[in-house]
Write a structure and sequence with these properties.
With 686 residues, the protein is of the alpha/beta class. α16 packs across α19 (603-611). The protein is globular, with a radius of gyration of 26 Å. Bound molecules: beta-D-galactopyranose. Beta-D-galactopyranose binds at residues 157-158, 283, 285, 321, 327, 359, 369, 372.
Amino acid sequence: MENLGTSRYEQEKRLLHGGDYNPDQWLKYPSILADDIAFMQKVRANAFSVGIFAWSALEPSEGNFNFGWLDKIIEDIAKIDGNIILATPSGARPAWLSSAYPEVLRVNARREKMLHGGRHNHCFSSPAYREKVGIINTKLAERYGNHPALLMWHISNEYGGECHCELCQANFRRWLVEKYGNIDSLNDAYWSAFWSHTYNDFSQIESPSPIGESGLHCLTLDWKRFVSDQTIDFYRHEIAPLRKITPNVPITTNFMGEVPNPHPFAGLDYAKFAKEVDIISWDAYPRWHNDYETTEFLASKLAFLNDYFRTLKDKPFLILESTPSMVNWHPVNKAKRPGMHMLSSMACLAHGSDAVMYFQWRKSRGSSEKLHGAVVDHDNSVENRVFKDVQELGEAMEKIAEIKSSATPAKVAILYDVENLWALSDAQGFHGGANYNDKKYPETMLAHYRAFWKRNIPVDVITKDKDLTKYDLVVAPMLYMTDAALMEKMAAYVADGGRLVATYMLGVADENDLVHLGGFPQVLRDVFGIRVTETDVLYPKDRNGVAFGEKQYEAFDYCAIVETHGAKVLGTYTHDFYSDSPAVTGHKYGEGAAYFIGARTNEDFLGDFYAVFVQNSSPIIAQEGVSVQVRENDGHTYYFVMNFTEEVKHITTEAALEDMLAGQMMQSGAYEMKPYGVYIMKQTKL
Ligand code: GAL
């Protein structure tokens, strides 16, 4: 968008605090709606996403609109100086729409037509759906576009999923014709002579299916690319009237992240999608206090995702949904322990969020989310623990409001590529069958990420379209899929003085998931000074070792066997037929250097390996389990110091810093942090 600078969003000085508000569920309860407005002020909430699933309330029957209730809600929120994040309602449809236009219902990969119900269950190709969405979006923009409380648009809800109906098949074929021009080129890219899968004509192509084609990996890749493009195309259709009528109102759509693995939602290429939105937002639901990992470990997963979403547009993002207490869809829906709401929210602000928003403001009374946490519980009490936690956070966010728009100064980048995840998920080989979880790409990203996070070094999680030159170090774990452009980009980065680290599985296939002929690609041989000749795959209990420096480290899962062609051997294998051969190498190339880690290792190795690459200039020295994250603007540096453990921890500050939450100076010295404790410390730049 052109005029973001003049928007209410840019002028808003507060961090956003609020959430999904569904007054459309409570229209028969005016006293509840009145309580809501009073309670919002109590918790210092200032932003509400309204209308997300309100289509039935806005258009109860085809062509009959009812905006009266929304007018009142918007006025009431405006009166308390609140912001409106107005949603387009396409995430769920009224029943009349499905009955009048059955084409809007999705068909799944098994070619079964879905029934009306649920949500996010519509075909992105359907002209009828597009038409109806276009009408309601236009009406919303015309009616509320000039409202002074309108902060931004919230488009649909968590776009995702795919439809395999005939309309989508036709669009997919058109997409393929545009990409390949002729069927021979497609057959070449698909290596379709395999199992006699050669196509004679584009009309024979069907989307991948468990009851049909699933073995042509480039078809699967293309389908995923198409689904992304098609979803983005639908989104473009949604925003067209909004851009026209409200050119100064920024647009977001809530992205998703999967904290267990962790990786961004894998159904869409967010790197592409990010280019179409003004402000990145995502919905974060970590499983705090679970029984299989430490709080510190889980915090690093959340941090990784926050860094990814921030880096998509290299600017602050919004946590558009989180829970103040529990969700209703984790395997165990545990309540946040005292202190965790403050800590988990600050953990997002620390990594670049300018908002803490909730799903949901008020717990719904019935249906599937009636037991999902909310700011206001069924008891309608402002005295309960969760409400008070939210209130405490609201007050804290006001105290640190000046961090809004501040940046994260990262000089280290980790490359995450969703297409690489897609390709690895198809690859039948390495570990397991066709399941990316077996290859552990996201977990490996995290292991490398943690080597920096644990040292409090800021990291950007980049996608492959990003400029590498601004980084001192780029880490690209398990980069199986390397197209020519990416390899050239990496070579240029190193030649110009960059430092690049890659690992086993580097450089196996091209953008069509066709294996590079001739083995390890020449450009990578030049840059890394090695040739990978084989990749050994180990059983889960098998172990090899890596001798590196004075120490030996465990190697497991994958061991790349490497010949050096100019690289220096930094570490060697300790066992098996490739014992003593290179496991870790480094190679000067141009002004820079490229390093290769041949084996999967534990964090101890990664910690020691990266130690020489990074320096921490922070004035805060913290015990393990305490994370120190930085944001900065022209005048100040802000340190978020967070104790992600259940124990008392100690920190030492080497400069006088302002404790923003307590509103007092902290002289240099040692300080105690209670379990889940948080400090936000401000330092004025000289
Ligand atoms: C999100 C969704 C919300 C709500 C929430 C529950 O994925 O966008 O509408 O369902 O989950 O945690």
